[in-house]
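Tokens help. Consider this.
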Amino acid sequence: MSGSKIQVSAVRDEVKALLAESAESKRKFVETVELQIGLKNYDPQRDKRFAGTVKLPNVPRPKMTVCVIGDAHDCDKAKELDMPFRSADDLKKLNKNKKLVKKLAGSFNAFLASESMIKQIPRLLGPGLHKAGKFPTPVSHNDDLTVRADEIRATIKFQLKKVLCLAVAVGNVSMNDDQLVINIMTAVNFLISLLKKHWQNIKSLFIKTTMGKPHRLY
């Protein structure tokens, strides 16, 4: 953790407080823990907008839905694993209808697709999945679909758009403090590596549960 401006012990204290608060006001769902970042000395109009993905050690969003767009082999595999899937015929039925493609994109958090299907997707669906930021991750027949789906669930994306604040899911309240701390430190250190002036671009860092109050890390 060299060069980090936040101490693991301080992060752990905030994580413990955050988990204790969440336990006090039990919700009917598992709250997500979000890392909220405020940037400074950055001009989104002029400076290069960054984007990067990092895989966290612990899956932050286990309930994230991943749909397989598969050839016959991968559709059968998905069926066995009780994973949602769509075949080429299912995609053809949408007839490139923008509303239907948008509905498909909105029905799942992410997509996996057989290597043989990847090239067909733009032809079958148009640019809908790409526009939604959900273009599928390719899988081969040797891949374990559950492992690949969990990789997607564990991967977070930092992308600077027009505003100087970002938020990413780094965990959930069913995790213990060790799991959350390592996820937070992994996410923060990766973000710093993306920034031009590293820590000098960070104005603030907070963690917060879906319904809880923010806890300041930096």
